Amino acid sequence: MSEVKSFWCHEASNILCVRASDFDNVTRLFLDAAERCVAAERREKELQQRLTAADERADTATTLIQRIVANFDTEIEYHEDVEPNDLEHDQVLAEMREFLSPKDTEWRMHPCKNGHLDVGAAGGVAHCYTCDEKITAANTQEAFEQWNATHPAS
Ligand SMILES: [Zn+2]
């Protein structure tokens, strides 16, 4: 802001003037800052979603481990007179296998047209954080799908 020069215009008395080029520069700086702000908020939302997903996976993993340990403990404790709970054992193993091959790879975004990998989708916008390429859609799922449909996988 300090670079903007103001001066008294003698043709129009008592009116403090600002050079049009200075005004345009400051306006551009402001709009750039506002855009970065919006991108940062979008990124924060996306990181929050990733964090929530990671938390959920950690909870699921913990629960599965607790169940299988509990089943083994029961087996050990009552070894001689109780059959191990094969149904529970099989169920936990099946859920563990499912956990180890997560479906969330379907949500992996392809690189942008410049090959940047720092891409994400949130708030109805699929976006490259490096070069600012973006696709806006009715919702995040659609933006994501349009992005991957128009960008080849790496
Ligand atoms: Zn890019």
Query: What level of helicity do the residues show?
Result: 40-55%
Structure class: mainly alpha
Q: If strands are numbered along the chain, what order do they take across the biggest sheet?
A: 3-4-5
Taking the sheet with the most strands, its summary is:
3 strands, antiparallel
Question: Helix tally?
Answer: 3
- Radius of gyration over alpha carbons? 28 Å
Mean pLDDT: 85
C-alpha end-to-end distance: 43 Å
- Oligomer status: single chain
Bound molecules: zinc ion
- How do the SSEs run, as a string of H and E? EEHHEEEH
Low-confidence stretches: none
DSSP strand tally: 5
What percent strand? 5-15%
Shape: elongated
What does this 3D model show about the protein?
55% of the residues lie in helices and 11% in strands. It is mainly alpha-helical and 154 residues long. The chain has a domain at 108-154. The strands form 2 sheets. A 3-stranded antiparallel beta sheet has the order 3-4-5. A two-stranded antiparallel sheet has the order 1-2. The radius of gyration is 28 Å and the shape is elongated. It starts with 5 loop residues before the first strand and ends with a helix. The mean pLDDT is 85. Bound molecules: zinc ion. Zinc ion binds next to loops.
Short description:
With 154 residues, the chain is mainly alpha-helical.
